[in-house]
Write a structure and sequence with these properties.
The structure is a single chain. The chain is mainly β. Helices cover 0% and strands 51% of the residues. The strands form three sheets. Strands 4, 5, 6, 9, 10 and 11 form a six-stranded antiparallel β-sheet that branches. Strand 4 and strand 5 form a beta hairpin. The chain starts with a strand and ends with a strand.
Length: 123
């Protein structure tokens, strides 16, 4: 059974950095894509960043150059390094997984979700 468990959230000040972690289990003998999402106005969740089945990273436009997604070695952990945080980054960030190749941030394509880790950014 696939499970994703996030950690690393907490209160931060604008301009500071934070790294989120996600422990991934259950994707045995198969390849998968993983990503980070957060709630958004007018929709349930929006994509922040993803790593597809062959290791290519993709970022939402609003985090380009400030966030870095990576996998651990062995690939049981997913990370999101967030730099130069601002109040708009505040929220609950969810780790998500999907079997095979997924290159879209559309939440409907992501079938497994963690419980989320929150972090407010104060200015």
């Amino acid at each position: 059974q696939v499970q994703l468990v996030e950690s690393g959230g907490g209160s931060v000040q604008a301009g500071e950095s934070l790294r989120l972690s996600c422990v991934i289990s259950g994707y045995k003998y198969t390849t998968y894509s993983v990503g980070w999402f957060r709630p958004a106005a007018g929709k349930e969740r929006e994509g922040v960043s993803l790593i597809d089945e062959i290791g290519r990273a993709k970022y939402a436009d609003y985090v380009q150059g400030r966030f870095t997604i990576s996998k651990g070695n062995p690939e049981i952990s997913l990370y999101l390094q967030m730099d130069i945080l601002n109040a708009e980054c505040s929220g609950i960030y969810y780790c998500a997984g999907a079997y095979g190749m997924v290159t879209t941030h559309e939440p409907a394509y992501w079938r497994k979700w963690g419980q989320g880790t929150p972090f407010p950014v104060s200015s």
